[in-house]
Write a sequence for this structure.
């Protein structure tokens, strides 16, 4: 990175607060035990079918698995037993989240970054990339396109680690995004929830983001394997500090953020180890705070411009192993949301979504200012990695409808206080799914009327009618009130929810 882009030493030194790591440790050790993970994987290579079915029953009771149980599932090879696992994962998803898939879009606001991660196109030593941080006017323009033309209600905003995109800038961008309201075909478009994918932050800064309406705070460990983590995150960078990143979610919880998202970049190390690492992370959050991760993400590594990291064939994640990883994550942490991203191509997303995924992005662009026409016409525009699926939101919604899923644009739970411990209890009991169905139908009605193409409207209407019949059968006492809300929405009223 050129000198003009380099933050001051004082800013760099302020990023890591040692006490905000050590105070969460037990006996001066973090919660990821590499040796224990290796041992569990080694000792559970031939799981007994009876034991596997007992584990599946535990999963379907929405109980978090033990490491040895997850390790056993990772080694199931019998085709019949594997099919039982897939069916169990699908049942859990239906029980906890009903028949819905939540959509969102990524919005990259700054690609300035002081780190030098060997697999990332935004790394500081990539001289080929054009560095930008969006102005508030540019943030507003991007939001107007996403909310007013495409119809998104949720965003995940993404920042590199740099003083120019520090907490004050982040807070201002959230305020800007929430302020945008655009007239749509029948109602209006607006972003109702802004999730944040940002570098690890001190508690004090996280409190600032929480105060301006941060949704889910998302930090991926990238890899839970220490040696690999050190190899791909060069020494001397902020990101080279494994523990500072590992305890990001603990600091978020302390700051009052009770919706957090964890993830691993599959392909840096053995995917089985990463699944175990994600389980360890979820269990640690449950132990420390009584609240596990709101979401788990599992992106596969993709090629990126000017990156020296060459993926070892030993750790390349095949389509079959990706499928297996998703099923085992759903079974291991049955209450969590699971995010399938546009890194995967359309065919893989069709294959993987029914296995327990609850969220996916659409109309995705990952360049800075990438939703504007100006970006499309610019030369040398650079992105963090290669996307596998760039279909429009309309196309994705149409396909989901044909697959029998209802696309949900709901953000009700967050504004009704169904977060943190409350949402965990509701998810484990299956009660949240009932709220989800009601709000999914109402928000889907909104989107179909405001943004859908005629073909997608037709496909969506079939799903809507099916869901309306289910609601009447499942909740006859509350059906009249629900239909009042539904008809008000169909008449053009917006943002009604239960």
């Amino acid at each position: 990175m050129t000198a003009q882009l380099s933050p001051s030493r004082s800013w760099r030194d302020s990023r890591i607060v040692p006490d905000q790591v050590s105070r969460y440790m037990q006996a001066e050790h973090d919660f990821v035990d590499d040796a224990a993970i290796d041992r569990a994987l080694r000792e559970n290579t031939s799981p007994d079918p009876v034991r596997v079915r007992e584990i599946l029953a535990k999963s379907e009771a929405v109980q978090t698995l033990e490491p040895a149980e997850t390790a056993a599932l990772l080694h199931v090879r019998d085709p019949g037993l594997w099919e039982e696992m897939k069916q169990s994962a699908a049942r859990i998803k239906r029980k906890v989240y009903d028949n819905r898939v939540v959509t969102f879009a990524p919005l990259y606001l700054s690609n300035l970054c002081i780190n030098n991660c060997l697999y990332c196109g935004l790394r500081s030593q990539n001289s080929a990339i054009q560095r930008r941080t969006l102005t508030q006017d540019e943030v507003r323009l991007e939001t107007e396109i996403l909310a007013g033309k495409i119809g998104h209600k949720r965003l995940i905003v993404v920042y590199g680690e740099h003083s120019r995109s520090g907490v004050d800038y982040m807070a201002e961008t959230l305020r800007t995004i929430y302020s945008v309201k655009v007239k749509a075909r029948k109602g209006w478009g607006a972003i109702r929830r802004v999730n944040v994918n940002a570098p690890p932050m001190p508690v004090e800064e996280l409190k600032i983001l929480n105060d301006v309406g941060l949704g889910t705070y998302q930090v991926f460990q990238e890899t839970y394997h220490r040696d690999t983590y050190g190899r791909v995150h060069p020494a001397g960078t902020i990101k080279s500090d494994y523990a500072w990143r590992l305890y990001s979610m603990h600091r978020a919880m302390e700051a009052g953020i009770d919706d957090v998202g964890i993830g691993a970049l599959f392909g840096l190390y053995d995917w089985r180890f990463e699944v175990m690492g994600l389980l360890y992370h979820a269990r640690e959050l449950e132990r420390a705070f009584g609240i596990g991760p709101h979401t788990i993400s599992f992106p596969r590594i993709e090629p990126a411009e000017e990156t020296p990291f060459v993926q070892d064939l030993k750790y390349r994640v095949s389509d079959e192993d990706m499928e297996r990883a998703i099923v085992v994550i759903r079974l291991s942490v049955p209450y969590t949301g699971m995010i399938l991203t546009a890194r995967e191509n359309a065919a893989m997303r069709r294959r993987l979504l029914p296995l327990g995924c609850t969220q996916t992005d659409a109309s995705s662009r990952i360049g800075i200012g990438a939703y504007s026409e100006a970006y499309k016409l610019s030369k040398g525009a650079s992105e963090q990695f290669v996307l596998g699926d760039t279909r429009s939101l309309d196309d994705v919604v149409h396909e989901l409808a044909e697959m029998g899923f209802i696309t949900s644009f709901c953000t009700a739970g967050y504004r009704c206080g169904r977060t943190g411990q409350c949402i965990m209890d509701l998810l484990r009991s299956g009660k949240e799914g009932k709220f989800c169905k009601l709000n999914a139908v109402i928000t889907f009605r909104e989107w179909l009327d405001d943004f859908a193409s005629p073909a997608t409207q037709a496909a969506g209407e079939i799903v809507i009618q099916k869901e309306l019949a289910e609601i009447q059968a499942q909740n006859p006492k509350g059906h009249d009130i629900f239909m009042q809300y539904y008809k008000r929405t169909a008449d053009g009223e917006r943002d009604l929810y239960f």
The two ends are 49 Å apart (CA to CA). Residues 432-490 form one domain. Residues 454-474 form the longest helix (21 residues). The chain has a mean pLDDT of 92.
